[in-house]
Amino acid sequence: MYIISKLFTYIFLPPAIFIWLLVIASFLVKKYKYLFFSGAILFYLLSIRPISELLLQPLENIPISNKKANLVVILSGDDIRLPYGIMLAKQNNIPLLFTGGGIKKPTEADFARNIIDQYKQIFNFKLKTYYEDKATDTVENAKFTKDLIKKENLSNKIYLVTSAYHMKRSIIIFKHFGFNIIPKPTDFLIKPTNYNFYDYLPNMGSFMNSYIAIHEYFGILSLLIRGYKIRN
Q: Could you tell me the residue ranges of all domains in the chain?
């Protein structure tokens, strides 16, 4: 019964249902059948784990460095980044800076401040922290962080904490603004497990991972068009 339920989920729920519709349309519509069928194939490929991870692999292949930094900078986003950034700052006895605003109140910086304050109270430790609360994208994260470290006389040699898939684009941007970066990626999307039968069935998780990877590639392309350079 479990296997039947699992197969039903993979075969008839989105994105599979849309793939089936494109396949059916390719048989019913003569004029555009190749277009519909090609769309079905592309949709299927983007919805399976091997392809989504193939797209993610160049993004998440981040060299690990043991070099020391003088400041932890956390980009707004997933909750995993906060405890990891706090751990880095405590282990190395260096300040922490969180950057992220958004268009809503409270800002992401406000949320981070509350979480970090709770960590300080629960575990009874002191940590010098700074918050940048105006940035709405990664370029502004870098720009406003640069302004803040100049104001507070902080170092530009940083541990940069962000999602693994977003790290390559973040490095390009932060180096453009003069930062010396030691990447510290979190929340990897590539799973450290072997593929099985179900990984070749379309699912929304893999489709979303493909979307995320393609979005990052377009983001990097946009930076290069705008004059940003990939620096070692």
A: 2-60+202-225, 71-186
Instruction: Pick the closest to residue 107 from 73, 83, 131, 82 (CA basis).
Output: 131
d(CA 131, CA 76): 11
Round to whole Å and give the CA distance between 14 and 227. Answer: 39
**Could you read off the pLDDT of 174-190 as tens digits, one per residue?**
999 999 999 999 999 99
**Domain 71-186 annotated CATH 3.30.1540.10:** no
* pTM for this entry: 0.91
